[in-house]
């Protein structure tokens, strides 16, 4: 949900929608808290066929002179789209990013109100360290000459679970497992066994250069250099965390804890969470640690967008893509709601696969691959989100930054409104709120069906009622006096996510219908439509900022190979893409 969701007009006033204005504001940031560097600029021309007079101010003057075909058009500036765009731009590709909203970032955007800077999504950032090969956010920024100051989070998350089970996930792995073993001493070996497998997978991932798993020259190269690690990954690709946990752990409460560990990153239990994804997050939080960017999560997208422009590529805001233009079955361009058309050799959609095929290609027959994807995966629920400012004194000293609350019954873990996520980013970065105040960002799963068919008055009343219930639960469990300490409150619903992020039903990505075969069934970036690629959380490896960043890296590599900026072999491509397509049908 974006920040300006609730009042886009005031937001528009504050953040200019024009690309030129964005550049200005980026440079301003660059000299201040985001530490931007100055870069060369290349001259380039926007490909535009028809320019509506009402929107002419959003297009650079020279764009009217000439039509030119871009190397890639990226629909949407979520982290997935921006990483794909910047990775291509640094390979000298000319990229145009079209964003429907006023600022970049999508669900990793931000908004400002009454002196508070709120993160749209949650504030738990993986992949943001200076270590290893899996720090994909750090690497994506570095590729375009950006770096951000980060604050290490000493505790990834503090779990408050049924039967008064309280577990803090400390940054130091030994501290965390020792705490867990102290709660389940009879399961010491099981705990070490399960998390040990996670480390084996994580270390294998961390030994590889991460690029497109759909590009055979790279893939075979990695197999040649790191055969054991690649075989280990291939072995775990079709497996789920819950099955592996059950090989080591018997205690039902500890297995439920593993479910909660997986739920916070996949919104499903461990039996449905791919082992590769679980290992990635359960280890990175101790290896590189969770690190919060100074100034807020929104700075990541702003920095990437600024870096993209520095590389000579372009980003346009208020550019709502209505359809993808096909020519003889090949994706060649896009048409905006205002009638403008842009053309490129490749089109990359950061809209979800449901939106891409259901809306942007409406009227076209759904390709078999997408049919299969929709059979195996459903849309994950959306979130009810409460952004609050509170008086600082309501938080006890040493309160952790991130909390997960499930009070009485494990059965409620996956129920709508059953468990509560809470982030207090001002614990790490007080500059996000006025003096003497903290930010509480509370969210809980919620489906759009709950919020439809209401009059505006009923909708507002329901938001207040549901939010009040959630706040009371936190008041009872964690912070007595919370309700009366609120100085600011804004509630977003799945409708808000749908409206401002253009996500079908406000979904936060795919969720397996049944028990998946690990990540085997997840589509990568290519699609059945020539020239069309997808990126973001409805592609492998799924939900999460670091996950969509990886999807962006993969996508850029595959596109670069297809437009001649990287090596490729047509024969090997046909073989590997065929094999991957066949493997997906087994999921
Ligand atoms: N770790 C965290 O705490 C955290 C926080 C926030 C978000 N996230 C994750 O980020 C992921 C989403 O990232 P993403 O990159 O896939 O997508 P996204 O939803 O963040 O971005 C998509 C962007 O595309 C734009 N868009 C969609 N349709 C468009 C159209 N037709 N024309 C123009 N623009 C259009 C939207 O406005 C949005 O800016 C989620 O899975 C979520 O889990 C995680
Ligand atoms: C192809 C074949 C057959 C074979 C091959 C083999 C190989 C080589 C393989 C390889 C593979 C790879 C490389 C892979 C990779 C992967 C990755 C990187 C992954 C990643 C993932 C990630 C993820 C999933 C993440 C996620 C995250 C998230 C979601 C987060 C979230 C958070 C939140 C929500 C927060 C919470 C809050 C609170 C508690 C407050």
Structure commentary:
With 587 residues, this protein is of the alpha/beta class. It folds into three domains: 226 residues, 3-Layer(bba) Sandwich (FAD/NAD(P)-binding domain), CATH 3.50.50.60; 121 residues, no CATH class; 126 residues, no CATH class. Strands 1, 2, 9, 10, 11, 12 and 20 form a seven-stranded mixed beta sheet that branches. Strands 7-6-15-16-17-14-18 form a seven-stranded mixed beta sheet. Strands 3-4 form a two-stranded antiparallel ribbon. Bound molecules: nicotinamide-adenine-dinucleotide (NAD) and lycopene. Pfam families: Amino_oxidase.
Which descriptors would you attach to this protein?
binds lycopene; disordered N terminus; binds nicotinamide-adenine-dinucleotide; seven-stranded mixed beta sheet; 18 helices; alpha/beta; FAD/NAD(P)-binding domain; 587 residues; 3 domains
Task: Provide a quick synopsis of the model.
With 587 residues, this protein is of the alpha/beta class. It is 38% helix and 18% strand.
The total count of helices amounts to 18
Average pLDDT taken over every residue: 89
Give the tally of structural domains: 3
- By DSSP, the count of extended strands is 20
- Determine the strand fraction and express it as a percent band: 15-25%
Q: Helix content range of the residues, please?
A: 25-40%
In this entry the ligands are: nicotinamide-adenine-dinucleotide, lycopene
- Class by alpha and beta content: alpha/beta
Rough outline? globular
Rg from C-alpha positions?
A: 23 Å
Pfam families: Amino_oxidase
Catalytic activity: 7,7',9,9'-tetra-cis-lycopene = all-trans-lycopene
Membrane topology: Peripheral membrane protein
Keywords: Carotenoid biosynthesis, Chloroplast, FAD, Flavoprotein, Isomerase, Membrane, NAD, NADP, Plastid, Transit peptide
